[in-house]
Amino acid sequence: MKICVVGTGYVGLVTGACLADFGMDVVGVDKDEAKIEGLKRCEIPIYEPGLETLVRKNMKENRLSFTTDLGPAIREAVAVFIAVGTPSRPDGSADLKFVRQVATSIGENLNGYKVIVTKSTVPTGTGKLIEGIVREQAGDDAAFAVVSNPEFLREGSAIEDFMHPNRVVVGSSDQRAIDIMLDIYSPLGRANVPFVISGVETAELIKYASNAFLATKISFINEVARLSERLGADVEKVARGMGLDNRIGPKFLHPGPGFGGSCFPKDSRAITQIAQEHGMSFRIMEAVLEVNDATKRRMIRKIEQATGGTAGKTIGVLGLSFKPQTDDIRESAALDIVDALRANGAKVRTHDPAAMEECRKLWDDVDFAEDAYQAADGADALVIVTEWNEFRALDLDRLKKLLKRPLIIDLRNIYDPSKMAAAGFDYVSVGRPATKRVDS
Ligand code: UGA
Question: Which of 85, 153, 270, 355 has the fewest CB atoms within 10 Å, counting from its CB?
Fold first, then answer.
C-alpha cells in the first residue's frame, strides 16, 4: 500500500521508517530541500537510536523514499499521514498553520478515495477542520475520510515505542478508513497490541489526556519531593512505596528539575487552553504547569544555597538535553538553570553527549567540555541535570581530585546519598536529605 507521510521531523521520520518496515511503500515529504537532500543520502537530521539503520534498510529495499514534491506524493497514496509541527502560540494554543497548508494541498490533489491521518498532536476539532478544508478544495462529493491516529513515541526510544506500543488509537467515523488503518498496522494486530477504535474527537483527546496525566504524575512527585525535603523524608522511598500499588504504578514518579521537551509543556498548555475555549478551567493542569515552573526555579535556589551563592564561581553542569538519548533541548530545565547561573555571575562549564551543538548557538560565554571530568575540572560544584548513562558511574576519586570543592548537586537522584558522603562529597539531591562528606 502506498503511503505519504508529510513532515520529516521527529514524528514523521519515525512513522515513515517504521511503516516502511511494516512493508508499506512510503514516501516522506518535506518542504525543506536541504533536509530532503540529506535524507536521500541517508543523513538523519535528528538523534534517535536505531533510526538511521531503519531508514537505510528500508531505502535500500525500495520501500522508503523522500521528496519535496507534495502533489504527486499525495496523488499516488492511499493514506496521507500528516506529521507536521504544531508549535505553541503565545497563549498556549496549538498553531495549526502547517496542518492547514497540508490539508489544502490534499484537497487540491485528491484523485480518488484517501485516508487522511493526523499523527501530529492536534486540538480536538482539528479533524473537522481538515475535513472542511479538503471539501472546500475538492468539492462536496470528494471521497476521503479523516482519521486521528495519535503517536505515543518517546524521544530516545521512538522505534521501540512504535514497534511495541501499549495501544494503537484509531479515531474515525468511516469504516473503510478504519479497515485501511487496521491493514496498515496489521503487524501490530498480529502481535496482539490492543486497538482503541473511537470517534475522531475522542482519539484526539486520548492523546492530550495521556500526556497531561503523565505531566501531572511528574509535577505531583516533584511536589512530594519538596514536601519530603521539609519533613526529612526520602522521596525515592515514597515513590517506590506508592508505585508498588498497581493502581498507581512506578513509572513517571521520578522527581527531577521539572519536565521539558516538545510535548509535555506544550500539550499541558494546549489542553488547558482547549478547556478554556470550551468554558471550563482545567484547574489541575493549571497547577501542573505552575508547579513545573516553580520546580525549575526551586532547582536554581537549591544550587545557589548549596554553593553559598554562585557569583564569581565556576559551576560544572552535566546534561543539557531535556532527557537522555536525545539532542533535543526544547524547554529543557538545563537551559533555565544555565541561564540563571550566567545571570547570577557564575562561569558555566558543561558537557552533554548530544546536545552541545545546539547550545553553542545559545551561549558564547559558556565552556563546552569534552566529558564530565573536563566539566568538573576546577569547578566549585558539579550539577547533574540530565541522567545520561555516562553520568551514572563516574569515577568519584577522579572527580574529587578535579573539583575545587567536592560538592555534587544531583537533580536526578542518580547517586546514593550515603555512598556519596562516604566517597568524600557534600551531596545535595531532590527530595532527600543532603549528606555531608565523611573525610577519610
Ligand atoms: C512524551 C510521552 O512520554 C510520549 O508518550 C509522547 O508520545 C510524547 O511525549 C509526545 O507527545 O510526542 P517525551 O517528551 O519524548 O515523550 O519524553 P518523556 O520520556 O515522556 O519525558 C518528558 C519529560 O519528563 C522529560 O523532561 C523527563 O526528564 C521528565 N520526566 C519523565 C521526569 O521528570 N520524571 C519522570 O518520572 C518521567
Answer: 85
Report the amino acid identity of residue 373.
Y
Percent over 90 (pLDDT), the chain: 93
Query: Residues near 313 by Cβ (< 8 Å), separated by ≥ 6?
Result: 307, 346, 347, 379, 380, 381
- Establish whether domains 2-198 and 208-289 are of one fold: no
For residue 267, which atom of ligand 1 is closest to its CA? 11
Question: Is the shortest distance between the CB of 155 and ligand 1 below 6 Å?
Answer: yes
**CATH number among 3.65.10.10, 3.40.630.30, 1.10.3210.10, 3.40.50.720, domain 295-428:** 3.40.50.720
Tell me the HSE value of 307 on the side-chain side, using a 13 A CA sphere.
Answer: 28
Active site residues: 263
Residue with cell 552533554: 352
Residues 208-289: name the CATH superfamily: N-(1-d-carboxylethyl)-l-norvaline Dehydrogenase; domain 2 (1.10.1040.10)
Q: Mean pLDDT over residues 151-162, rounded?
A: 93
User: Mapping DSSP to helix (H, G, I), strand (E, B) and coil, where does residue 158 land?
Assistant: helix
Mean pLDDT value across residues 426-431: 98
Cα–Cα dist 5/20, whole Å? 11
Q: Under CATH, domain 2-198 is a member of which superfamily?
A: NAD(P)-binding Rossmann-like Domain (3.40.50.720)
Please state the pTM of the whole predicted model.
0.94
What is the edge-to-edge ordering of all strands in the sheet holding 114-118? 64-67, 25-29, 2-6, 79-82, 114-118, 144-148, 168-171, 195-198
- Beta carbons of 326 and 156 less than 8 angstroms apart: yes
pLDDT at 422: 97
Domain boundary assignment for the chain: 2-198, 208-289, 295-428
What pairing do the DSSP bridges indicate for beta strands 195-198 and 314-318? Answer: unpaired
Using pLDDT thresholds of 50, 70 and 90, give the confidence band for residue 440.
Answer: low
pLDDT tens sequence across 165-180: 999 999 999 999 999 9
Ligand 1 within 6 A of CB of 211: yes
Percent of the chain with pLDDT over 70: 100
Q: What is the mean pLDDT of residues 251-268?
A: 96
